[in-house]
Amino acid sequence: MNLSARNLKKQKLLKFIIPIMLFTAASLAGISCQEKGGEEGKPLNGPTDTPTATPITGPGSKGVKPVSTPVARRIVAMNGRVEPTPIPCDQRRQVQVELSQMGVDCAKYDFTALNQEAQAMADAELDKMKCSKGTPCTLFNKFYTFWTADCKNTVATVRIKGYSLCASNATGEGGRTGIGVPSDLAKPTNKITPAPVTMDSGENPTFGAIDDGTWYKVDINKMAKVSGGITLACPSSTLCVFTYMEKDPQAASIGVGDYGPVVQRAEEQAGILFNQYVCPTPKCTKVTPFTPLYTQWGLSGSKEYVTVDVYFMLTCK
Questions:
Q1: What is d(CA 227, CA 239) in angstroms, rounded to the nearest whole number?
Q2: Is 78 exposed, middle or buried (0-12, 13-18, 19+ CB in 10 A)?
Q3: Phi/psi of residue 103, nearest 5 degrees
Q4: Widest CA span of the chain, in angstroms?
Q5: 193 vs 156: CA distance, rounded Å
Q6: DSSP secondary structure string, 110-159?
Q7: In the chain, where the domains are located
Q8: What is the per-residue pLDDT for 281?
Q9: How far apart are CA 96 and CA 140, in angstroms?
Q10: What region does 240 belong to: left with phi over 0, alpha with psi -120 to 50, or beta?
Q11: How far apart are alpha carbons 188 and 91 in whole angstroms?
């Protein structure tokens, strides 16, 4: 083969090899950028600033509303002030719980489970208050002041009124140790007729909206069975809707600027309620974690409250 023929063959080979080399180098450079990032280790196409939550500036919803499964538990929580620790010292934070079981036989109904569940809901709310060390208010007090159970027209209802406070050593109710549960309210109605029990002298038995605390109203359909207070039936699948109502002094006059924080608080409260219910292990366990299926928000009819509905499922298998 002469020299000119060999040169021609080399030129053709280089034309084939050079593009492959360039493509490989570019690919390796791309991989290096994806693994190490651009300047200061950031992805080349990533955001330069930390993203912020998009404000929710009007009524709306997210998720898919369940329509084929009937709601077994309807829970309404009306909140006044949302701060976990009242100021000044010794100021009470109130909780009211009204828990009703629908479609029961009053002559044979046993209030044990209903009382235990109502107490668990009250305690979970009262226990949110934490007293800071190193302050004048270091004594945590939790107590019930009113507790009643009654059954009328196939509806059994337990009502509890309780308080928690961070007390000082020298003033207010600092020395209080709390009030126990009335013993007779755990007996079935065929042995005793439950009557209102005023556990604190001068306590008002009226239930309604409150400015500093939470008012729970819960309706349980007969299909949503519980045992032992907060233990669900096994197996069971219970659809719950939690309505969170937070008082907003400005809502009626100027409207709500951002629903987002209230929606977040509502879903957090729904998660707390979800965690109160357990399955009878080891026979049965919760098969799904807390997940809001559908959340809807807006203003109440009176425009005094921001209202959020959170739908979620309790499943034991």
A1: 17
A2: buried
A3: 70, 40
A4: 119
A5: 12
A6: B-HHHHHHHHHHHHHHHTT--PPTTSSEEEEEEEEEEEEEEEETTEEEEE
A7: 59-80+209-317, 83-204
A8: 80
A9: 19
A10: beta
A11: 37
The CB density around residue 12, as the number of other CB atoms within 10 Å, is 10
DSSP notation for 41-73: G--TTS-SS---PPP--SSEEEE----SSPP-E
Task: Give the DSSP letter of residue 233.
Answer: P
- Give the Cα separation of 141 and 126 in Å (integer): 9
Instruction: Kindly report, residue by residue over 7-51, the tens digit of the pLDDT.
Output: 444 454 445 444 444 444 444 333 333 333 333 333 344 444 444
Where b means 16+ CB within 10 Å and e means fewer, 214-251 reads bbbbbbbbeebbbeebbbbbeebbbbbbbbbbbbbeeb
The set of residues, in sequence order, having a beta carbon less than 8 Å from that of 280 and lying 6+ positions away, is 227, 231, 232, 234, 316
Task: Yes or no: say if 312 and 291 are a contact pair by the CB < 8 Å rule.
Answer: yes
- Report yes or no: 201 and 69 within 8 Å, Cβ to Cβ: no
Structure tokens at 253: 């006059």
Element containing residue 254 per DSSP (H, E): helix 251-254
Both structure tokens of 227: 């045992």
Contact between 178 and 60 (Cβ < 8 Å):
no
Q: Mean of the pLDDT values across residues 116-121?
A: 89
Q: Are 146 and 163 in contact (CB under 8 A)?
A: no
CB contact burial 125-149 (16+ within 10 A = b; e otherwise): bbeebebeeeebbebebbbbbbbbb
The 10s digit of each residue's pLDDT in 265-290 is 999 999 988 988 888 888 888 888 99
**pLDDT tier for residue 199 given thresholds of 50, 70 and 90:** confident
> Other C-beta atoms within 10 Å of 75: how many?
20
Element (H, E) at 3: helix 3-36
Asked whether the beta carbons of 215 and 208 are under 8 A apart, the reply is yes
